[in-house]
Amino acid sequence: MAGGREELKLLGTWASPFVIRVKLALSFKGLSYENVEEEDLYHNKSELLLKSNPVHKKVPVLVHNGKPVCESQLIVQYIDEAFSTDGPSILPAEPYQRAVARFWAAYIDDKLFASALQAGRAKTEEEKAEALKQTFAAVETLEAAFKECSNGKPFFGGDTVGYLDIVLGTLIPLAHVGEARFGIKLFDGTRSPLLEAWVERFAMMDAANAVLPEVDKLIEYSKAKQARAAALAAAARN
Fold first, then answer.
1. How is the beta sheet containing 34-37 ordered, strand by strand?
2. pTM of the predicted model, to two decimals?
3. Domain 95-215 has CATH 1.20.1050.10
C-alpha cells in the first residue's frame, strides 16, 4: 500500500471506461484512494475538476498529493512510476517492450475503441456496418498482437497482468453491454479465440472483479443515456 503521507483522489464517473482503466491500475497495484464521483459532467462539473483539468475539463483525473494527472493512459503510466515499490510492475522493464506496449495501447484507443464508439453512434445502417467492419478488423489485429506479446502465456504482460491488459480490460464491460443490447460479440472464438479466453481470465481476477462494473447496471445506464440523447435531438428539431 502507499505510504501514509500519500494522498490519492480519483475524479471520475463510475461508468466511464477511462475511469475504469485507472481504477484497474490502482487495484492491481493495491493502492488506496478516495473516489470522487462527478455527478453531472454535462451541466455541473465540480470546481475541483475544472481546477484540476482546465484544458479538457474531462475525467479521469488522478490527484496525487494535490497535483493532478490527466488522461487515462498517462495516469496508468504515472501510477506505475510513482508507486514502483507498491504491488507488481505494470509496464515492462525493458525499454523496447515498453515502447511496444505503448504503441498497442494507442492502437486500442485510436482504432478499436474509436471505431466501436462510432458504431454505437452511427445514424444509418451503412455507417454502422462500416464502423463495425473497422472494429472487427482492429480486433483481429489485436489478436495477432496478443499472440506476439504474450508468448503463449495468459496475459499481454506474460504470466502476470501488464499495461496492455489494463488498457484493453476497460473495454470488457462495454463488450458485454454491446452483446446484451445489440447482439454484437466483440471477442469470439472464431475471430479472436485468444482474446476471448483472455477476457474470461482477466475478468475473473480479484483485482479486476473488484473494479469492473455490473453489466446490468451498465445496460440500464446505456439505455438511459440513449433515451436522453434522443429526447435532446427531438427537442432540437421542434
1. 34-37, 8-12, 61-64, 67-70
2. 0.94
3. yes
